[in-house]
Amino acid sequence: MKRLFPLLVACLLALSAQAEPLAFGLFGDTPYNHWERDNLPDLIAEMDRENLAFVIHDGDIKNGSSVCSDEVLQDILDVFRKSATPLVYVPGDNEWTDCHRKNNGSYDPVERLGKLREWFFSGDLALGQRPLKLEHQSSDPAFAMYRENVRWEAGGALFVGMNLPGSDNNFNGTKRSGGPVAEFIARNAANRVWLAQAFALARSKKLPGLLLAIQANPGFEDANAGKPSPGYRDFLTQLREETQTFAGQVVLVHGDSHHHQINQPMEDPATKETVKNFTRMETIGSPFFGWVRGTVDATDPQVFRFSPRFWKTRQKAN
Predict the structure, then answer these.
(1) Which CATH class is domain 21-310?
(2) Which of 17, 152, 170, 216 is least surrounded by Cβ atoms within 10 Å, i.e. has the fewest?
(3) What is the pLDDT of residues 27-74, one digit of tens each?
């Protein structure tokens, strides 16, 4: 019995630690102008003071009309690396999909994505000063290039980052119409595998929650009306099917449309009923400035809760 007692205490402590609520930060669609860039370090410092486990930037580290140069990307990377809190970055359309625009410098979007992969996802750790080890999809030789697709466990839930940007997920590439380009086809296949694996992992571990972070607003309203955008059709169908067969809570965090909202927009196409274990949380975006404090509590039936932290001082894009 004496030998069993220390083991029992260790098990109880482990269960207690797993049930402890955990806080994290969410932000994106910033910086879009000089004021936001100047204040970005202070915004990150504010999150650092909150003793968060990690923060997620869900894409768009520049506005859609500015140059996609190496210097711009390196500048934001340097800011992210100085975060005291582990920082997980999800690529946005403004820093790769839309870089072919003349006012963006007429870059090749696929080349810009390669640069993001090289610089922002060079190791197995999140950005920032405190280490957070991430599992990358690129650890599978079949998906060696997709370093930006990541996942990690925290607070008894699974967190997943995936490259699903705005501008219709690069469905047409630099064309305005036509069928899907090769880049989209390959990445879409990788994303489908990554999403399926995430839900399979959460089910096998009986986790109460899964949070997925992407950049794009995938258009739930259009999908509910039977008119999903082609770039997001597969994703929305798979996400709904996986969510409806998952016992826990699912949260999709995204940016893109710059309208902070927390709601339940997913509908079952057959019954038109709301899928009740799914929540969408859109981060604060320019010209608004701030971040969202999230908590995960495995003992809470809702699992995830969110509280916006708007800055009182803000300026419009210039």
Answers:
(1) alpha beta
(2) 17
(3) 999 999 999 999 999 999 999 999 999 999 999 999 999 999 999 999
Distance between CA atoms of residues 183 and 245, nearest Å: 30
Q: Exposed e or buried b for every residue in 147-169, given b needs 16+ CB within 10 A?
A: bbbbbbeebbbbbbbbbbbbbbb
d(CA 269, CA 162) in angstroms, rounded, equals 25
The pLDDT score that the predictor gives to residue 9 is 38
Tell me the whole-structure pTM to 2 decimals: 0.92
List the beta bridge partners of residue 294: 24, 306
3-state secondary structure the chain: CCCHHHHHHHHHHHHHHHHCCEEEEEECCCCCCHHHHHHHHHHHHHHHCCCCCCEEECCCCCCCCCCCCHHHHHHHHHHHHCCCCCEEECCCHHHCCCCCCHHHCCCCHHHHHHHHHHHHCCCCECECCCCCECEEHHHCHHHCCCCCCEEEEECCEEEEECCCCHHHHCCCCCCCCCCCCHHHHHHHHHHHHHHHHHHHHHHHCCCCEEEEECCCCCCHHHHHCCCCCCCCHHHHHHHHHHHHCCCCEEEEEECCCCCCEEECCCECCCCCCECCCEEEEECCCCCCCEEEEEEECCCCCCCEEEEEEECCCCCCCC
